[in-house]
Amino acid sequence: MTATTLAPPPPASASRSGRAPIGRLTWLLSRPTAQTKAVLALPAIAFAVTTALLLIVLGGVMMFWRWTIADADLYQMLSVIALVLLIVPLIALGGAAARLSARRRDDRLATLRLIGATPGVVTRMTVLESTAVATLGALAGVVLYLIAMPIVGLLPFQGEPIGAGALWVGPGAILLVILAVAALAAVSAAIGLRQVTISPLGVRTRQSAPRLHWSRVVVSVVAILAAYVMLGSLGSSGDWMLTIIVLGTGLGIGVGILNLIGPWAIGMAARLALRRAKTASRLIAARSILESPKATWRQVSGVAMTSFIAVVAGTGVSFMDQFQGDYDAPTRMLMADIRTGILVTVLISFLMVACSVGVNQAAGILDRRDLYVSLDRLGMPRSVIEQSRSRAILGPLRFTTFGSALVGGVLVFPLTSLALIFAPVSLVVIVGCLVAGVLMVWGTIKATAPVMTRVLSEPERM
Amino acid sequence: MNFFTPPQPTNAMPPANSAQRPPILTGSSLVKTYGSSTALAGVDIAIAAGESVAIMGASGSGKTTLLHTLAGITPSDSGHVGFYSASGLVDVTAMNESERSRLRREAFGFVFQQGLLIPELTALENTALPLMLAGYPRREAEGRAQHWLVALGLGGMETRRIGELSGGQAQRVAIARAQVTGATVVFADEPTGALDSATSEDVMSALLGSTVGQGHALVVVTHDETVAARCSRVVRLRDGRVLSHTAVGTTFGSNAVTA
Ligand SMILES: Nc1ncnc2c1ncn2[C@@H]1O[C@H](COP(=O)(O)OP(=O)(O)OP(=O)(O)O)[C@@H](O)[C@H]1O
Ligand SMILES: [Mg+2]
């Protein structure tokens, strides 16, 4: 089964009868030069991390589904929610890898046209290559998963470490995940290719950034008010089951709102930043966000979801914590476990976001190497280039993280005020987690600086 | 003005006329090799203030390499580059990377074949960028940039982004960007290479007017004889050596100055 993913039969056999041996051409042209190495390694790493995290999360979910204790159904429901939430950053990661694939095709088109290949051949080659790279990455991810199992196994649920074995998903699931990752790569490469049929820069520069309609804001405000009233009516009833249901609904509404107003809010903030920009790096950063607030949102939305959920759910836990005395031991255990679950979900989500930001940044540098080389030649200091790059992500990230946390806070305000009084520890943990997440992304951007160094030190012949 | 003297194969030396005006940039015995290929095999050249020099030669003859070496973009393997700044002679060859970067930012201007402007920024912002890097407040930087854009016939296009400009307009924005800080030498590598001949004429006029017209020097690499004919001097390269220095038009009297 794995063998088939490495060499998809239909295109390969079709071309064998025709002119271009796609598999061999792909292999020939994939052989690493300094630059292609980075272009191939980046998505491979991204896919490896994705696979490892997916397997760990899946292992956790499956573990809960094997449970037979009294509250098992609650654990199962919550684990599925966590899984669903992690899909947002997962898709962002896939999209990032797809952009790199698209870039590969542009490079190739030039080379291959010279030897007379049709765009179709090039497309198939690129899809094949993306799939192969993703499969290799996924295999590395399985190794990563095996290494991480004992460490993640230390996490306590139901009062004791779950143990490495509990996270084992079995060979069938591993195979399925590898296939799914490969398929994701193939599909997103194909989609990515369609989007760059016109030159990527040409598409990007044509007109000014679209303004989002104000109706989104109205809808959002109404929804927030509705959710607020609903959560407010929850009052201080100590019924945790009801609390979870209401919080779950509020959470769903909140996620919807965030997606509705996220890009719009990022655009507004960037417009403000543009007007106030005093330095070159701030100006460039604000302009590049405005270029496509949606694309920026896509990169940081995983964080937005997570911080929102962390606040809503975490506050819920703090809220319930205050009735600790009224609860029996199993319920208290459940509270602690929910908190652990939230933290784990937040961390995994940040890890995915950091990874996709890293891939996006590296891809962005390679995409625009001509521009960066020319700016360097003009004498633009390296620090300005780097600052504008990190500002264009960290600005929206900070804004989004704390903005979504704020929306979450507003939604659960009746609970938050109590929680702050009775269980500040829980909130401190959540805020700490969010700050750590921002730092993680910051570190990722820093980690892509060597790519820039290489681009600038080995400028393409012009 | 518009006539062209065919190249005369000679062992080239810096032209005698460099004594007429003070040199602003000199390169002596410049050698640059890439692996086994020799891009520059001992080039001597002097650029005088306010003159326009066209560098010509076959593909691979070392034009871009010479331009980059003179501009402090690429360090040469041996030889010297000297720049006569307001405060005296500076040895570009002895500068480190960040000093050269600063020199390029403050004393030189650049125009490349494909504008290479920042696509997200407007024409005005692109032009104002070098001034902002030099520490001008944004308002003042944009005010000066505005003047240059108007002078180059781009009035009314300030808020357009680069993708919304034609190739010739984008190239004029690049010229404005190169001169907005008052650079004493502007380097242009095939600035008209991607333009049709009429647009090429316009861009070349803009380039000459905003450099030589201001008393600044222009070094332009080109394959286009009509472009070269509008410069005061043509330097021809072959295999990393100067083949000939040819004075064009009336600026330096005789047609071919060789020694
Ligand atoms: N970065 C580099 N790495 C390796 N070789 C290089 C590099 N840059 C230039 N060369 C070599 O140096 C020689 C001169 O190159 P250069 O770019 O200066 O030529 P050119 O005259 O500008 O050509 P063109 O008209 O095609 O732009 C060529 O043989 C080229 O192959
Ligand atoms: Mg060249």
State the gist of this model.
The complex is a heterodimer of chains A (462) and B (259). Chain A is mostly helical and 462 residues long.
Q: Tell me the strand order in the biggest sheet of chain A.
A: 1-2
Number of distinct helices of chain B: 7
Secondary-structure-based class of chain A equals: mainly alpha
Q: What percent strand of chain B?
A: 25-35%
Strand content of chain A: under 5%
Number of helices of chain A: 19
| Helical content class of chain A | over 70%
Residue ranges of chain A: pLDDT <50 for 5 or more in a row?
1-18, 196-210
> Nearest-angstrom radius of gyration of chain A?
24 Å
Write structural notes for this entry.
Chain A: InterPro entries: ABC3_permease_C. Chain A: One of its GO terms (cellular component) is plasma membrane. Chain A: It holds the Pfam family FtsX. Chain A: Residues 81-195 form the ABC3 transporter permease C-terminal domain. The complex is a heterodimer of chains A (462) and B (259). Chain A has helices at residues 2-6, 9-17, 22-30, 34-66, 72-85, 87-114, 119-152, 171-195, 200-205, 215-233, 240-276, 280-291, 293-321, 329-367, 369-378, 382-411, 413-422, 424-447, 449-457; strands spanning 156-157, 160-161. With 462 residues, chain A is an all-alpha fold. Chain A folds into two domains: 22-208, no CATH class; 212-462, no CATH class. Chain A has a two-stranded antiparallel ribbon with strand order 1-2. In chain A, a hairpin with a 2-residue loop joins strand 1 and strand 2 (160-161). In chain A, helix 6 packs across helix 8, helix 13 packs antiparallel against helix 14 and helix 13 (293-321) crosses helix 16. Mean pLDDT of chain A is 75; it is low at 1-18 and 196-210. Chain B has 259 residues and is an alpha/beta fold. Chain B has helices spanning 63-70, 97-107, 123-133, 138-151, 167-179, 197-210, 225-229; strands spanning 23-34, 37-48, 52-57, 78-85, 88-91, 108-111, 185-189, 217-221, 233-238, 241-247. In chain B, a hairpin with a 2-residue loop joins strand 9 (233-238) and strand 10. In chain B, helix 5 (167-179) packs parallel to helix 6. The chains are: A mainly alpha (462), B alpha/beta (259). The interface between A and B is medium-sized, with 30 and 34 residues. Bound molecules: adenosine-5'-triphosphate and magnesium ion. Magnesium ion binds next to helix 1 of chain B.
